[in-house]
Amino acid sequence: MHDGNLILLPKPLADEGTPIVINNACVSWRRLANSFTFSNARAYIGTLFPISALEAQEVVIRFVEKHFAKPLPAALWSAQRDVYGTNHRRPYVATGVYTQWLRARRQDVVAHLVSRLSRTLASWQQLLAAETQKDTPRYKVIEEAVAYYKQELAHFRDLNARHPTRHDESRARSGSAARGAEPEGDRWFFPARLRTRGDALAEKANPLARISS
Fold first, then answer.
1. pLDDT per residue over 97-136, tens digit each?
2. Is residue 101 part of a domain?
3. Are residues 30 and 90 in the same domain?
4. Domain check: are 114 and 183 in the same one?
5. pTM of the predicted model as reported, rounded to 2 decimal places
6. Is the pLDDT of residue 62 over 70?
7. CA dist., res. 197 & res. 136, Å (int)
8. d(Cα 143, Cα 103) in Å, to the nearest integer?
């Protein structure tokens, strides 16, 4: 990103959606604010100057937990005020309409990801099958993409298979519900975000690493 080679296209961004983008990379606001909003992001939050991983974590945790129910710019301002106090340091800047809000929708996140990954994998596999020469750079790039999506799809299918079923509800409630999941039928639904593979390790290393669902 620092060499200016990141180019965003409107349709591929967030599966052709209009997401709110939070970029914790150092000096990530200047050009990328224009690039992401041009590419259909309805709001973009980036940094004006270098920022440490610890302060980025503290700002974002307060942003999505304590100040969740505020307009986006107000939530960001409040989160930075909490972290920096009377210090003039305010690295984050928000671009977008002031009335943007963070929203949470209850859905089976894993099933949604499996569906999207399956669709994308099928597209790459069609491209691979259409290639007649297997010793070209193009073929190798497509082959790598197919391998990547197969790996990701296998992970989320395994995660989906390991979700607790209805008869495990009482046993799982004490653990999964504490992470923000809510039982509905035979699936666990995550209101805001699915815990990633690295979340558990991060929480053990630093309790502040937890981002509430």
1. 888 888 777 778 888 888 889 999 999 999 999 998 889 9
2. no
3. yes
4. yes
5. 0.58
6. yes
7. 35
8. 37
Q: Do 92 and 138 lie in a common domain?
A: no
Tokens matching residue 48: 């004006």
Tell me how far apart the alpha carbons of residues 213 and 106 are, in angstroms, rounded to a whole number: 11
Six token digits for residue 132: 């007649």
Residue 80 Cα to chain centre, angstroms: 21
One-letter amino acid of 3: D
Confirm whether 67 is domain-assigned: yes
DSSP state of 64: H
Q: Is residue 5 part of a domain?
A: no
Beta partners for 187?
184
The region of weakest confidence among 69-78, 110-119, 179-188 is 179-188
Q: Which two tokens stand for residue 67?
A: 């100040």
Cα–Cα dist 109/112, whole Å: 5
Phi/psi region, residue 14 (left: phi>0; alpha: psi -120 to 50; beta: rest), is left
Coil, helix or strand at residue 94: strand
Domain-embedded: residue 208: no
Q: In angstroms, rounded to a whole number, what is the distance separating the alpha carbons of residues 47 and 204? A: 27
Domain that holds residue 147: 109-193
Instruction: Region of 102 please: left (phi>0), alpha (psi -120 to 50) or beta.
Output: beta
